[in-house]
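Researcher: Here's a chain I'd like modeled. Treat it as a single chain, no partners, no ligands.
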Amino acid sequence: MTGNPLRSALLQLENVHVRLSQQLVLRDVSLSVEPGEILALVGPNGSGKTTLLRAALGLIKPEKGQVFVKGRSVTTLSPRERALIMAWVPQQEFASENLTVEDFVALGRYPHLGSYSPETSADNEAIDSALTETSLLSFRERGILELSGGERQRALYARALAQGTPLLLLDEPTSHLDIAYQLEVMEKLSSFRRSAPGRAVVVSLHDLNLACRFADRILWLSHGHCVTIGTPASTVTQERVFEVFGVDTSVHRRGEHVFVFPPERRPPSPPKEGGLNRVHVVCGGGSGKDILRELVSRGYTVTAGALNLLDSDEEFCQTENITMAVEDPFTQLSEDVRLRHRTLMADAEVIVIAPFAVGEGNLVNMQDPLPFVAQRPSFLIGGSPEMGRDFTGGKAADAYAKLLRAGAKELADLTQLYDVLASLPPPGKQHSEPQPEAPVLSH
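Model: Modeled as a single isolated chain. Structure tokens:
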């Protein structure tokens, strides 16, 4: 990117090189940030994300190249002029005084005040709005040093919102937050850029799925160099993730949405001697972890499903390399994933249905085992979903009853399950005649 700064761009970097302690940490980086967009910076630790943000803020002077803010070189702007255009949320900031949260957030209003000027009603409204946006109103009298890491991160974000700038720059704003607040912060960033004309966000992220879900464009950094920049749909590929992060992943697409997660792999556990070996566990929401852990420890070859990415059972399966049918996060189970799930059940010698909570999104996990339970030993653990686990208005309990009529057996607890599994005869002695192949349901 060369030539005059783009007048429409809030922020523009042209061929920027930055050297720190004799090491070149940014090499020939160019980008422009237009009003109305979220630009995500992704790359491994040490790739230059924080350095790029600090150069954009004018906190680091490039060895070569230029930074423009609203068409003006950042080096020509006074600190106050920069603070009226750009607000900065660092990854960490260590407060030297135990200011109240309200006073800490009020620091964001300083660029708007003259020397010794008192706060105005507009300042107070901006502070209250920022505290409300970040769910910190009830913390306003608390000391900043008394907050948890996640709460302090939200206070940093509130201070930036109170600053009232058109451009927000954030360095790993979700790093100390649980998943609920991660999603909340990213939703608020998305709302920020839409809430008034001329606003934009530049944010560095480690979580590729957050970048894919919320960013309009992604800039991929590796060793201080811009590998590529573009939309999630055009830049997120299995090859690119491996090129930048050195990690083998699986990239799934659903319409315009892109999801990244580790590929499915079969467990390396040795087969159990004698009896039935391949056990499929229908589970979700943490209901299957204890079952899966014990079965793996006893030498069974285990599969699981159908699970959403980020579900606690899914995360356990990833840790243990358990093959599973996996759906994108926060979505209902699709036909493709259901077909994968049915294939796993057809391959299994035993089916175990864990006591998972059943809602409309995973109701099919209670329905899809039906054609298979008459053909192989199948067990229902923990009683009917109507005992506090049916959130479908009775449809889950009805599916459970159909499984019982088809031949599935109820077991009270896991101890009973393991005893029953150990007593099952080897394959080939379950039935006097060959069993038909399990049908694939059509809908």
